[in-house]
Amino acid sequence: MTQETAQKRSRAIVAAVQRPSVSDAEFDASLTELRQLAKTLGFEVVATFTQKRAGFHSGAYFGTGKREELRLLREEQSAKAILIDHDISPSQAFNLEKEVGGEVMDRTTVILEIFHRHASSRFARAQVEIARLGYMGPRLREAAKQAGPKDRARSGTARFATASPSCRRSSTRWPSSARPSARGATSAKDWRAWRSSATPMPASPP
User: Fold this and answer.
1) Both ends of the chain: CA-CA distance in Å?
2) Contacts (Cβ under 8 Å, ≥6 apart) of 118
3) Which of 15, 25, 81, 166 is the most buried (most CB within 10 A)?
4) What count of Cα atoms within 13 Å lies in the side-chain half-sphere of residue 165?
C-alpha cells in the first residue's frame, strides 16, 4: 500500500537562485525546509536545481542557459512541478512555466496549498480561499493576458481576471500566526501553528 501510494505522488523539482548576500548555510537550510513543505503537500522531490546569480532574472527568475538546463532536468525526471524557493512575480512564473514546462509554484503558493488542504472548519477554509484568490489573482490575470479569447473562455480565467479587486477581497483576516506574506513566516512550523489556532473544530470526514 505504501509503495502504491508513493508511485502516485507527483514528482517535483525544488529550485532556487542563490544571491551573493545569502550564505551557503542559509541557502541550504531554506532549500531543506522547502523540500519538507513539498513532501507535506504530497510531492516526491526528485531533484534540487540551483544557480548562483547576482539577482533574479527579471523575466523568468533563472538565467537563459539555466532555464534550458532546468527544462532538460524536468523532462529527464518526469517532474510535474517546479517549486521555487522565493516569491516570484506573475510574469516570472508564467514565463518560466512556458519555457521549462510543468507547473511552477513559488514558496507562498506552496504554503497556501498546505493551508488549504489542512483547513478543517468552514471558517478556516474560507480564510484560506480568500488568501489563495488574493495571491493567485495576478497570476490568473497574467495567464489570461497571454492567452487568446478562446483559451480564456475555455479555462474560465477571464471572468476572474477581469473582476475588480474589491470583488476578490474580504474583510476577513488571517490569524497572525498564519499570514504567509513574510518570508520568515512561510515555514513548516507556521502552518502547524495556524492549523491548531484556526481549526478549533474536529476535522470533517473525507
Assistant:
1) 19
2) 191, 195, 199
3) 15
4) 3
> Got the DSSP string for 18-80?
EPTTS-HHHHHHHHHHHHHHHHHTT-EEEEEEEEE-SS-BTTTBS-HHHHHHHHHHHHHHT-S
Q: How far apart are alpha carbons 139 and 9 in whole angstroms?
A: 25
Helix, strand, coil shares, percent, the chain, to 5: 60, 15, 30
Instruction: Kindly report the CATH number that applies to the domain delimited by 2-105.
Output: 3.40.50.11060
Q: pLDDT tens digits, the chain, 206 residues: what are they?
A: 444 444 578 999 999 999 999 999 999 999 999 999 999 999 999 999 999 999 999 999 999 999 999 999 999 999 999 999 999 998 999 999 999 999 999 999 999 899 888 888 888 888 888 887 788 777 767 667 776 665 545 444 444 444 444 444 443 344 444 444 433 444 555 555 544 554 443 343 33
Report domain extents, the chain: 2-105, 110-198
| pTM (global) more than 0.70 | no
Amino acid, res. 81:
A
Cβ neighbours of residue 40 closer than 8 Å, sequence gap 6 or more: 114, 188, 191
